[in-house]
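User: My advisor asked me to double-check a structure prediction for Porin before group meeting. I don't want to rely on an old file, so could you generate it fresh from this sequence?
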Amino acid sequence: MRSYVTEFIGTFFLVFTVGCTVLAKAPFAPLAIGAVLMVMVYAGGHVSGAHYNPAVTLAVLLRGRIHWTDAVAYWAAQLIAGIVAALAARYVVDPGTVAELSPSGRVLGTVLLAEAVFTLALAYVVLNVATSRDHPDNSFYGLAIGFTVAAGAFAVGGISGGAFNPAVATGAATMGLFAWTKLWIWLLADLAGGALAAVAFLALNPEDRAPAETSAA
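Assistant: Sure, here is a fresh prediction for Porin from the sequence you gave:
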């Protein structure tokens, strides 16, 4: 239960920060988002593995460091936290009418690719800095994870919305930033990116193949 509550708290602060900065049109939103993810990773990493992202949880599951039962509970905590945080952010900022991102045609393909690529990068970084046997006691994992999200948000945030996270995407839809009818685009791209990250990690780190041992990353 400690792990599930930790996942809820970390995901809440991530999505709340995304919502407040994006709804307020803060110019340095990617830095704020990357920073809050970094500190929440440091805060909860020793408890739950600090996934705060269903795509990362999927990558850790396929990598063999979490059980299915825990993964399902993580997904539930993350998605619920995303919706609650979105409602709170919408109430705090109260932006009125919000422009909804509803990609179609060629843009749909660019959103799929952009989201998949940077979710792959994020999950790949998490697996390498937080689950690899080569880095058992490192102190840089939070920085690496947070800056990956910041880099992705700066690079393609204007194209795809920069979710890289199904919980963030669900929160964005709750806030009116993403069209509910197109939410499948982010869910598909982000989960595919997480799965590809696990495949790449295991291919490059065969010594890390092991049965699930713990719920933490």
